[in-house]
Amino acid sequence: MIYTLQCPDCDEITEFVQMMNDEHVAVDCPSCGRGMTRSNNRCYGMDNFDIRGETVAGSRQVSYDYMDPTLGHIKNRQDRKDKMKAAGLVDYEPNPEMHKHRVEAKRIRSQSNPAVDGDAARAISNEYKTAGKKRMRASIKKSFDDADKAAGIN
User: Fold this and answer.
1) What is the DSSP letter of 59?
2) Other C-beta atoms within 10 Å of 120: how many?
3) C-alpha distances in angstroms, 121 versus 17, 100, 107?
4) Rounded to an integer, what is the distance from CA 93 to the centroid of its chain?
5) How far apart are the C-alpha atoms of 120 and 129, rounded to whole Å?
6) 17-21 contacts: CB < 8 A, separation 24 or more?
7) Which residues, other chains included, contact 87 with Cβ-Cβ below 8 Å and sequence gap of 6+?
């Protein structure tokens, strides 16, 4: 993870990559060379990130006004839609058949504990297997339909 530390001597604020349990491991300040540890020099305000706004899927997790590697600077949702359309891209939409099986698996989990109840665990597994088989069949059918269309066969 990336942690932000502030040197107690020169007040230099620097980001370091450390493991979560490296709290007491000292890192050297790039300006003055003093050893700093996360346990006593952590600059908490620098680690916060913005979670307002909407994501591409419509949930409220990430704010707009960001840089997309493919589309460039995105100002708002409409700007993103316009740039995607201009680039010939479309948003990901989850498979509705898979969604039905996820909802059923979630319902089963809410009614029993699959870690303890073997029947519930098997029912959840069967939901995902069924969804996977349906998606595979639909994908194969689409491939054959596309091949037939390309060959001019109706």
Assistant:
1) -
2) 17
3) 39, 17, 12
4) 15
5) 14
6) none
7) 70, 71
**Residue with token string 């502030």:** 6
Q: Which DSSP state fits 19?
A: -
Cα separation of 136 and 122, whole Å?
21
| Predicted TM-score of the model (pTM) | 0.34
Q: Give CA–CA dist 83/90, Å, rounded.
A: 10
Q: Which amino acid is at 135?
A: R
The backbone torsions φ and ψ at residue 137, rounded to the nearest 5 degrees and listed phi first, read -60, -45
Residue 37, φ and ψ in degrees, nearest 5:
-120, 155
* pLDDT tens, residue by residue, 116-147: 788 888 888 888 888 888 888 888 888 888 88
* Environment class of 100 (CB within 10 Å of its CB; exposed 0-12, middle 13-18, buried 19+): middle
